[in-house]
Specification:
The protein is of the alpha/beta class. The chain has 2 domains: 269 residues, Glycogen Phosphorylase B (Rossmann fold); 183 residues, Glycogen Phosphorylase B (Rossmann fold, 3-Layer(aba) Sandwich). It contains 19 helices and 20 strands. It has a 9-stranded mixed sheet with strand order 3-4-5-2-1-8-9-13-14, sandwiched between helices. The chain has a 6-stranded parallel sheet with strand order 17-16-15-18-19-20, with helices on both faces. Bound molecules: adenosine-5'-diphosphate (ADP) and alpha-D-glucopyranose. The site of adenosine-5'-diphosphate (ADP) has 18 residues, from helix 1, strand 15, strand 16 and helix 14.
């Protein structure tokens, strides 16, 4: 099968969160299953820095806007692990400081940027080869599904080509002013509640949900949750109407990147059978955070996260005064919303012996935390899948999570034969504190703790099975169009 991915993030070039991990790993797994996969990514400044002299594949595409055209080049990102990568080069749109936003807010022309990206991918496939299926991700490439079934409706080469949309996070939908419909050269009769309109805005993700041939999201739990008012963020109605076409497929892990047996970013390697290297990783991590004199009996709790309301930092802040009474240190790595960056920095300054925070994006440090911490804390308000808790399992770092979405699906405290982590329910910081205290209690019992670590390390979340599930979704979508 010939599959084209269009996405706004992909490891190793451009990443703000787990989307980038998935868009790198899933194509690789599909290629391993024998499929031909191409991935399209905007040629952001960050990408250009890493691949400054990418060869030109298509020297000029014309992307029309109401009173002007933009001219876009397609660059060769190379064949990596059997997956062909292409970059959409439009310096006016993508040669910027960040992917989506400045500290003061989203770029004002994001609709034009990602509308252009989606159209450029469609146009390129007309030159390089029309695929059997398009796979688009989140609001940033959802417009591809909309264009395919509207602007390109009469194009004979696309009539039998479906678009599959994966919703990684329904909290971000791409809301734009109504006149965006004109910017995208779409007719005003698509600006209706049945199609692209919501609360008098043009909603990219909603458009994708309406027009895509099939929908997936990144865990079974979240597939159910987004059909409710609590998690649907206003899209529960349209998602409910398409529930027959919506499946939850739990993300996998790229164990080439995330495995303590061969991770090049960590101080020592270890496995479930030989855990001795983990102690060295713990010392290295404490050192990296400038924590001295921490006893072996003291638990090291790690956090790696985007700093966003989604991730439940307000729960952590609420319990901090009581948490610091416990025998633990808390090490946090993250960046994002300025509010949380400031708040968490203040908390760390209040308890320098117990809490440390590093406000930055640092992939090596993320690996060091996975390897060196004893527990991994993820009290998310909602979590479509969550990758860090699954990475943690492989590193023998026991997750403490809120029971939601993919966290609920992957972490089981009461499992027959032994749990793999600790879980709390409700929007309740007291329940979080209880879960942390339960974990600290178990940590004191070394045998039980080691069993729990080894149990998580033995679990297999590799991409092969999820990739096969995606193939079934593609096949069904192709069948439905023929
Ligand atoms: P989300 O996509 O909602 O941010 P996930 O758990 O799916 O959450 O994925 C987060 C990914 O981003 C993981 O690979 C994690 O290691 C990485 N990450 C998040 N914040 C940082 C950071 N500050 N530095 C390095 N990596 C980070
Ligand atoms: C989103 C979600 C996260 C998920 C990731 C990859 O950013 O917030 O839960 O793991 O996408 O699918």
């Amino acid at each position: 099968m010939d599959i084209v991915f269009a996405a706004s993030e992909c490891v190793p070039w451009a990443k703000t969160g787990g989307l980038a991990d998935v868009v790198s790993a899933l194509p690789k797994a599909l290629a391993r299953l024998g499929h031909k996969v191409s991935v399209y990514l905007p040629y952001y400044r960050q990408v250009a820095k890493l691949v400054p002299d990418a060869a030109v594949v298509v020297p000029s595409l014309t992307i029309p806007f109401p009173s002007y055209n933009r001219f876009v080049r397609i660059l060769d990102g190379g064949l990596i692990d059997g997956v062909q990568h292409y970059f959409v080069d439009s310096p006016e749109m993508f040669d910027r400081e960040s992917l989506y936003a400045t500290p003061s807010g989203d770029y004002g022309d994001n609709a034009e940027r990602f509308g252009l990206f989606s159209r450029a991918v469609i146009e390129t496939t007309k030159i390089l080869g029309v695929p059997d299926v398009f796979h688009v991700h989140d609001w940033q490439s959802a417009m591809l599904a909309v264009l395919l079934r509207s602007t390109y409706f009469f194009d004979p080469v696309f009539r039998s080509v479906p678009a599959v949309l994966t919703i990684h996070n329904a909290g971000y939908q791409g809301w734009f002013p109504p006149r965006t419909i004109e910017t995208l050269l779409l007719p005003w009769d698509m600006f209706t509640f049945e199609k692209l309109e919501q609360n008098d805005t043009l909603n990219f993700l909603k458009g994708g949900i309406v027009y895509a041939d099939a929908l997936t999201t990144v865990s079974r739990g979240y597939a159910q949750e987004i059909q409710t008012a609590e998690f649907g963020n206003g899209l529960e109605g349209v998602l409910g109407r398409r529930s027959a076409d919506l499946v939850g497929i739990l993300n996998g892990v790229d164990y080439d990147e995330w495995d303590p047996a061969h991770d090049p970013n960590i101080a020592a390697h270890f496995t479930a059978e030989n855990l001795s290297g983990k102690q060295k990783c713990r010392e290295d991590l404490l050192h990296a955070f400038g924590m001295t004199g921490v006893s072996d009996e003291t638990a090291v709790i790690g956090v790696v996260s985007r700093f966003a309301t989604q991730k439940g930092f307000d729960f952590i802040v609420q319990i901090m005064d009581r948490l610091v009474e416990e025998d633990m240190v808390l090490l946090m790595l993250g960046n994002g919303e300025e509010y949380y960056e400031r708040l968490l920095t203040e908390v760390a300054a209040r308890y320098p012996q117990k809490v440390a925070v590093r406000v930055k994006y640092d992939n090596v440090m993320a690996h060091k935390i996975e390897a060196g911490a004893d527990m991994f804390l993820m009290p998310s308000r909602y979590e479509p899948c969550g990758l860090n808790q699954i990475y943690s399992l492989k590193y023998g770092t026991v997750p403490i999570v809120r029971a939601t979405g993919g966290l609920e699906d992957t972490i089981d405290e009461q499992a027959f034969g032994g749990g793999n982590g600790f879980k709390f329910w409700g929007y309740d910081s007291g329940a979080l504190l209880d879960a942390i205290r339960r974990s600290l209690g178990t940590f004191q019992n070394k045998d039980e703790w080691t069993r729990m670590m080894q149990h998580g390390m033995a679990q297999d979340f590799s991409w092969t099975k999820p990739a096969e599930e995606y193939v079934r979704v593609y096949e069904r979508a192709i069948q439905n169009r023929s």
